[in-house]
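If you are new to this repository, start here. Below is one unmodified record pulled from the training split, so you can see the exact layout before writing a loader.
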Amino acid sequence: MSKHQLSQISIKSVIKIFTFLDYFLEEESLNPQYFKDNMEKFTFQERYFLYLYASEYFSDNNDSFLNQWINNIASNNGIDVTVDYLTLIDNNAKSLRKITNDQKLKIVEKEFLNLKQTIDDENKYIIEKTIPIFEEDNGDFRTYQKIPLYVSHEHRENFKNFFFKTLKDSLDSGSIEKLYFNTFEFTGNITELKLLYLRVDQKSLLEQAFKIITNQYKKDILERMKAKYIDKINSKIEERLANATAVRKRFIPKKLRYTKVTRIHFMKALYNAFPHIRNAYGKSLITNPSLSLDHFLTTRIKNLKKA
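And here is the target side for that same chain:
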């Protein structure tokens, strides 16, 4: 009996879980590969209950739901007609049990507990008062600014897919989505930048993944953004200025500046999203009160290069 209850998650999540399990049995015949392939569509919370109820509903106990379901199919349609189908179900169920065994359930339970602690942290607003939030200035790019992602919809979607794919081994899809919208500024993203309380087990793996994302951003986004967006907007502003009266010129927006985004800006995005980085900076300030956020993050980048 699990010490966690379905009432701890939303009704929509509960419906999502049991809709999947029903479809998984009726349409996918408990194909274990289908189960594994679809886990990324669920949050850590949902994933825990999926593993839990898959192991209970599809267990080999005589009174389990699966055995009752098999008996009903055989009695209603005849064993001769259904033997191949039911054999497939039975074999798939055996393979599935290896995926949802007690050891695997403990792993997803740990992820569940980490996320639950994250939510508790968000509700309690646990922030070290010694940590300066959004005070650092790095040229024309501040900590509280998001990283610009003003390219075509096609290129932005390609980059978003790359972002999700690169982080899928570090975070669940819900956390990746929060991180994406909290990190980048683009048309249609109305999410306000804020401190997130995301959790991650393999912290070095996360920062290595962000290093890869940074390099992809430099390679695929920066120059394209300058040529296709910033230069284009500035050209229109120059045209308006050329034809405007002195009074109207005061109401024309200033030209956009080309921001040189570097790895430290991506590290600041991690700082904004992960409390373990903010806490590490807070502890460093205790021994070195004059330590700037830029210097702290630069040191992390250098250590990452040595790893």
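Two things worth knowing about this chain: Residues 115-144 have pLDDT under 50 and may be disordered. The longest strand covers residues 137-138.
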